[in-house]
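Schema walk-through. Below, the input block comes first and the output block second. Nothing else is stored per chain. Lengths vary across the set, and this one has 77 residues.
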Amino acid sequence: MLAGAPPFYGETAEEIFEAVLRGNLRFPPSVFRGVSSMAKDFLRKLMCKDASRRLSAEQALRHPWIQRAGEADERFI
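--- output ---
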């Protein structure tokens, strides 16, 4: 998890399940304040309910957020 909380929210397990089924991702600022917009874009595209619009594994690896993470890691080696 990027923020210590899941991107699907509900008061009950049933509400969370419904949010997952609807693909209703939420990024409340109080929880996701330190998460970049690029990281949130990556999550939205990975968790897209419409499978034809969802990122493939290859597309996910080419996402700018993943590419930047790889570059950052190389600087610390």
